[in-house]
Amino acid sequence: MVKEYFFEETDRTNAFITRLDLAMYEETGGPLEGKGIAVKDNISTAGIPTTCASRILAGYVPPYDAHVVTCLREAGAAIVGKTNMDEFGMGGSTTENSAYGPTTNPHDASRVPGGSSGGSAAAVGAGMVDMALGSDTGGSIRCPAAFCGIVGLKPTYGRVSRYGLIAFSNSLEQIGPLGKTVADVNTLMSVIAGPDPRDTTAYDRPYTHTPSNDIAGMKIAVPRRILRRRCGPCCCRACAHCYRKTGRCRCRDADLFHSLHGLCPCCILCDLYE
User: Which domains does the chain have, with CATH numbers?
Assistant: First the structure.
């Protein structure tokens, strides 16, 4: 049975490019039944405009769903809108470089939400939706999740089908989940992960992970040198506070000296060879 989902949340952060005040979903008995899910605007959605935050694609309405969107619908989700991003996923990691205006951080409007999946992260961080989809090449899910105080995951390449994704960098980019909690991200990941005959890189293996809060004995690598050189004092204090809260874990210094030189080859791989 098809049912109606009324999406009445106020968008104070400009998280959405397109929103559906009335979205439809099917009673499938799936894990997302009746939940409103936001989708990054570079993921194809049948009947819903997909612009990649660019005027170039203004008015483009895909005739088909991306594989992950099909998975959402089969799990009973209501697609409530398409979220803002850096145009075509390029131009920075702040979601300020959108033809539809910048997205702001839901906790402080004077700050950015991160990018390029900043709209999805802001929508979750502001409580507009419980979960959202983003895409990540070099941090475009993980950075916005951190900036907005939520959870985000870049899946291993091939774990999620890229069919229907308008990718910035095909051999590096992955669609992934964002949510308020680890449990939310795990639920969304269990829905979208799996094989797809239209993507030959998709991994044919079921997703069966069960989150656990048992962290006793785990080792945490702490890149203190990079933190001191690249982050402000507030960030360093916040990290130190988290390390103290880990309790039974063991923190170990990690000297990731090569990472300071990683940006240039990353840009070459993404911009020239893709």
Answer: 2-192 (3.90.1300.10), 219-271 (no CATH)
Q: Are strands 250-253 and 219-222 parallel, antiparallel or unpaired?
A: parallel
CA distances in angstroms from 61 to 20, 135, 173, listed in the order given? 14, 19, 22
DSSP string computed for 45-73: -TTS---TT-GGGTT---SS--HHHHHHH
Q: For residues 37 and 133, is the Cβ–Cβ distance under 8 A?
A: yes
* Residue 136 and residue 179 in contact, taking contact as beta carbons nearer than 8 Å: no
User: Looking at residue 91, what is its pLDDT?
Assistant: 66
Tens digits of residue pLDDT in 202-249: 999 889 999 988 888 888 888 877 787 778 788 888 887 887 777 778
Do 249 and 217 form a contact (C-beta atoms < 8 A)? yes
- The dihedral through the CA atoms of 202, 205, 210, 213 has a sign that is negative
Active site residues: 40, 116, 140
Q: Give the pair of three-digit tokens for residue 83.
A: 């979220």
For residues 215 and 248, the answer to whether their CB atoms sit within 8 Å is yes
